[in-house]
């Protein structure tokens, strides 16, 4: 038992140390991307192709997740509603969860899994096959050609993806409410717009999405550029990238929730 | 050296490198190698059930292959994997669940204060939600990320470096040797991890309740809303996740495309696939239990 808890503590410490180290690297990635963009070196064609590849490619995943997230919210609140007989509050409850918490976080996690790890895999492949050094040898700055377009594309994808998933998840919640709890969609809509939810809540969710986008973009890029040791190294980099991103997403979630306290 | 006569005294018209004596030597080498492998610690494995060509591959085929090789799994390998996949995910799981627990209690507290300044229902409601949904769903999602990525990266790396073919050459079926131990370990470990991580979320929720809203822990830790059905729902979910995650991820790893980007792509597919599996299974089990328990 002592040995077990010792291993647990050591693991926790390792996780924290690697997180702090990772955050430092990510700040450098973000600084490089912003610097390259300010100097006007952000490659337009690369940005377009990154938006198509990473952005459009993740829409199916985001939409299919969102439908079930909406349903999940309804199923979760079902016993509470049955206990208090408060069916008119279903729209408010589901809307609150989807707009402020679960929607942004789950969309962030899915985009991290789909877009972030794709980005890590691509950059990791370029790194282990020494193509990044090849770019430098051709006097092309990797910051403007590789980093900046991907970082902006991922941040934009996370924002737009979260907005889409909010709408889809609300539709999914309304459908689940109708079929599982027999709550009429109009009742759901009225609960949603009864005034307890405002556009500030939507803004709150989008602020989180922006923070998650920055985290996903920088951490996936940092881990990709740090990959070593051939194709297995790329796989390892993808694994540690998604894990670190997940922790950071929840940390950012706590941070935004606690600072942006809506009265 | 360039165009000189062949070094051996080749009698036939064929290539000098494949002279009869050499070929015989090689063949006997193989026979010796195979016989030592058969006698050694590698148990006879079931036939190579898994189709090698991708066109016939499907999750169901992998599932069937995994099941038929379960009886050949070495217990020591399962223990190793339970440590690698389970114990080593624990810090990550505890960290995330503690964060989420704190946030949820905080948000629920703010909402409760907005409507009625009554915080007595937060603790019991939170515990009920934790037992029925949250602990299982979040642990599942986090395991899909951590365990899914590691299984796919490991098996995928072995695929692109031809180590799966090397296993086949040693009469060891990759499914029985690699997939089945991971599968068994995940199935066994996921419910336990869910309980530990849920306890972390409970502790942090209690702490936030006490610090931010002055709820006394003895009032917060009140399991009066927890039902037997809720417990069963939570357990069913974690069991289903422990079943689905290793399967989806191992499938992605086994069919990694050879090439420098293959392993990365396989890891991506594993994370996305098992996350979606967790969300979809969570919804269906939740809905099913809701209907079964007659909550409508």
Walkthrough of the structure:
The complex is a heterodimer of chains A (263) and B (296). Chain A is an all-alpha fold. Helices cover 87% and strands 0% of the residues of chain A. In chain A, helix 2 runs parallel beside helix 5. The longest helix of chain A has 41 residues. Chain B is mainly α. Chain B has one domain. Helix content of chain B is 73%, strand content 0%. Chain B is elongated. At the A-B interface, helix 1, helix 2, helix 3, helix 5 and helix 8 of A face helix 4, helix 5 and helix 10 of B.
For this entry, give a set of tags.
heterodimer; A: 263 residues; 8 helices; 87% helix; globular; B: 296 residues; mainly alpha; 10 helices; elongated; disordered N terminus
Nutshell version of this structure?
The complex is a heterodimer of chains A (263) and B (296). Chain A is built from 8 helices and no strands. With 263 residues, chain A is mainly α.
How many DSSP H or I helices of chain B? 10
Largest sheet of chain B: none
Radius of gyration of chain B, in Å, reads 27 Å
Number of domains of chain B: 1
Strand coverage percent of chain B:
under 5%
- Domain count of chain A, please report it: 1
Number of helices of chain A: 8
Overall geometry of chain B comes to: elongated
Q: Spans of chain B with pLDDT under 50 lasting ≥5 residues?
A: 1-25, 36-47
The main pleated sheet of chain A reads as: none
Overall pLDDT score of chain B: 79
Nearest-angstrom radius of gyration of chain A?
A: 21 Å
Helix content of chain A: over 70%
Oligomerization status of the protein chains: heterodimer
- Distance between the first and last residues' Cα of chain B: 87 Å
């Amino acid at each position: 038992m002592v040995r077990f808890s010792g291993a647990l503590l050591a693991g926790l410490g390792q996780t924290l140390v690697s997180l702090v180290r990772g955050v430092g690297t990510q700040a450098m990635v973000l600084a490089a991307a912003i610097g390259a963009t300010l100097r006007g070196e952000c490659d337009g064609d690369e940005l377009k192709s990154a938006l198509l590849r990473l952005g459009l490619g993740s829409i199916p995943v985001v939409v299919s997740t969102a439908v079930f997230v909406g349903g999940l919210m309804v199923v979760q609140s079902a016993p509470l509603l049955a206990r208090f007989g408060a069916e008119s509050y279903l729209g408010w409850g589901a809307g609150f969860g989807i707009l402020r918490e679960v929607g942004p976080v789950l969309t962030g996690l899915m985009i991290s899994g789909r877009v972030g790890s794709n980005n890590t895999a691509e950059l990791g492949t370029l790194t282990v096959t020494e193509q990044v050094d090849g770019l430098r040898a051709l006097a092309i700055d990797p910051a403007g050609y590789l980093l900046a377009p991907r970082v902006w594309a991922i941040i934009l994808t996370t924002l737009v993806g979260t907005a889409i998933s909010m709408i889809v998840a609300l539709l999914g919640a309304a459908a689940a409410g109708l079929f599982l709890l027999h709550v009429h969609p109009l009742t759901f809509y009225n609960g949603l717009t009864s005034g307890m939810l405002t556009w500030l809540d939507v803004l709150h969710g989008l602020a989180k999405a922006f923070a998650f986008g920055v985290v996903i973009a920088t951490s996936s890029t940092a881990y990709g550029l740090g990959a070593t040791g051939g194709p297995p190294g790329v796989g390892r980099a993808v694994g540690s990238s998604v894990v670190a991103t997940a922790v950071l997403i929840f940390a950012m979630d706590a941070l935004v929730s606690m600072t942006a306290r809506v009265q | 050296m360039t165009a000189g006569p062949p070094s051996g005294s080749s009698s036939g018209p064929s290539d000098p490198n494949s002279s009869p004596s050499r070929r015989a030597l090689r063949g006997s080498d193989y026979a010796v190698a195979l016989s030592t492998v058969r006698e050694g610690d590698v148990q006879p494995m079931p036939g190579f059930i898994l189709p090698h060509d991708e066109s016939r591959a499907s999750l169901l085929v992998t599932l069937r292959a995994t099941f038929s090789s379960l009886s050949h799994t070495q217990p020591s390998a399962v223990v190793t994997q339970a440590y690698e996949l389970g114990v080593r995910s624990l810090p990550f799981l505890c960290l995330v669940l503690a964060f989420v627990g704190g946030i949820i209690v905080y948000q629920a507290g703010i909402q409760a204060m907005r409507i009625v300044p009554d915080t007595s229902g937060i603790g019991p409601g939170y515990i009920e939600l934790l037992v029925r949904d949250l602990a299982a769903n979040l642990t599942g999602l986090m395991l899909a990320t951590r365990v899914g990525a590691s299984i796919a990266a490991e098996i995928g790396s072995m695929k692109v470096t031809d180590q799966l073919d090397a296993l086949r050459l040693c009469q060891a079926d990759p499914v029985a040797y690699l997939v089945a131990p991971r599968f068994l370990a995940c199935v066994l470990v996921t419910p336990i991890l869910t309980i530990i991580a849920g306890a972390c979320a409970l502790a942090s929720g209690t702490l936030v309740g006490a610090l931010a809203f002055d709820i006394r822990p003895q009032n917060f830790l009140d399991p009066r809303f927890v039902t037997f059905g809720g417990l069963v729902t939570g357990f069913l979910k974690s069991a289903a996740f422990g079943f689905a995650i290793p399967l989806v991820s191992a499938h992605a790893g086994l069919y990694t495309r050879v090439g420098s980007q293959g392993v990365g792509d396989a890891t991506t597919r594993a994370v996305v696939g098992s996350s979606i599996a967790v969300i979809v299974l969570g919804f269906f089990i939740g809905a099913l239990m809701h209907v079964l328990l007659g909550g409508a």
